[in-house]
Write a structure and sequence with these properties.
197 residues; alpha/beta; six-stranded parallel β-sheet; globular
């Protein structure tokens, strides 16, 4: 068994207690190097690298160089699907965002793309039925896993207490419903505990 590696999500320095004053990416990677982290789970979010800026390959490669210069690998890309919730968006629009993030993954040197369901857990949006939302999400995730696979990128869903479909039974059901070998469930132990209790 290989050495265990530790990474941290860059959004921890963008949101929450840092919302009013995000820590610049250059400072984040410097500190992670000093603390001997192996890598970073890179969220494609402003101000570190917005989705719009990430469409420019030179900006992506500049981020990759910054990370390389500090000895940090990218464990996964947390994709920005905020404008295309899987149960609401046109599937073609969602898949376009998947393709763009797959290119970001390739340029940042990772083979994992993280997603979630975007929608709060307390509401089924737009007057849709629960089952319609569930199966639309499963179908879009299945197609996204297929598309990401063409780039050599695994499509992983992180269930969270703050998003729709987070109960243990829903997580297991979604994994079986998506039914694609390139789809996985990202298991965050804190989220799992919160969802289970």
């Amino acid at each position: 068994m290989g050495k265990k590696k530790v990474s941290v999500g860059n959004w921890a320095y963008i949101w929450g207690g840092y919302t009013d004053k995000p820590v610049p990416l250059t400072e984040v990677v410097k500190r992670l190097q000093e603390y001997k982290f192996d890598g970073i789970e890179f969220g494609v979010f402003a101000p570190h690298l917005s989705f719009e800026d990430a469409k420019d390959r030179q900006k992506r490669l500049a981020v990759k160089k910054l990370l390389d210069d500090h000895g940090l690998a990218v464990s996964a890309v947390a994709a920005d699907f905020g404008a295309v919730p899987p149960m609401l968006a046109n599937p073609a629009d969602y898949l376009d965002v998947v393709m763009q993030h797959a290119e970001i993954c390739v340029d940042l040197g990772t083979n994992k793309m993280r997603t979630d369901t975007i929608v709060p857990p307390t509401e089924v949006p737009g007057g849709m039925s629960y089952e319609t939302c569930f199966w639309r999400t499963a179908e879009v995730f299945h197609r996204a896993a297929e598309v990401a696979g063409h780039y050599g990128v695994k499509f992983v869903w992180e269930f969270e207490p703050g998003f729709l479909f987070n109960k243990p039974s829903e997580v297991a059901r979604m994994a079986y419903a998506v039914d694609h070998p390139n789809f996985g469930v990202l298991f965050d132990s804190c989220h799992a505990h919160m969802c289970a209790v």
